[in-house]
Amino acid sequence: MDDINYEKLYMINKILIILWFIRHPKFYLHFFSLIKRKFLFDHDTIERRSKAKKWASSNSISYNAAFKKLGMNGKKNGLDVDIINKANKILNKSSTIMGGSAHVNLLYDSVKILNAKKVVETGVAYGWSSLAILLAFKDKKDKDICKLFSVDMPYPLKKNEKDVGILVPKYLRKQWVLIRKPDNPGLVEALKLAKNQIDLCHYDSDKSWWGRHFAYPILWRSLKSKGLFISDDIQDNLYFYEFVKKKRLKFAVIKLNDKFIGLIRKP
Hints:
Layout: H1 2-22, H2 28-37, H3 46-59, E1 60-61, H4 63-69, H5 81-92, H6 104-114, E2 118-122, H7 128-138, E3 147-151, E4 176-179, H8 183-193, E5 198-203, H9 209-222, E6 223-231, H10 239-247, E7 251-256, E8 259-265
Parallel strand pairs: 1-7, 2-3, 2-5, 3-4, 5-6
Antiparallel strand pairs: 6-8, 7-8
Helix pairs in contact: 6-7, 8-9
């Protein structure tokens, strides 16, 4: 009986999501791409996930070792603890549930050390990653020319639009452009606004193999020489592994809790 009820709830949820897309024509392209994937090769099987996690685990190194391996030399301070505590107090007042906090210290230190001025990220949720990047801009002498372009697909049925990016205070929003679209076409729009010249990118949205198959190449093309490519949750499939192997790229892997983050420094 419980199994039947669970299946019914699952089907009802699927139907409601379809109806949500039907009522939002501007997301039709994304909706049709999701349908198309049902007929494409499945790269996200349990077996492939297991292989990806095993590879990521065997290649993971410490935070400091990753910076050293990629030639990123400089002081690593991380995000201030008081800021993290204030952000958590804001989250306690939110009634919606979204993604985690990403590796805020990695993002903050990377922007600082690389003196990144143009950054693109995908997947905003509460805005942890956005907060870290924008705070790294704050003390720059040329902060007025720094920009963060964030792409975030609205969550069907969750009605959490008001909470997307709530951790980013008003005084930091001058350097922030939030594009409320799926990666396709949102990423294309973000990169165009950045004139296809970015210093750092953080990929934390569509974690499927096909999602990465769309996003990685266009992000990589827009990344400047010596720029940094960061991708969360590379244990979900083998795309990151295949990407660095095919292009023979120097990479680093960092473990965060039970997940893995991939980093690539563009030659």
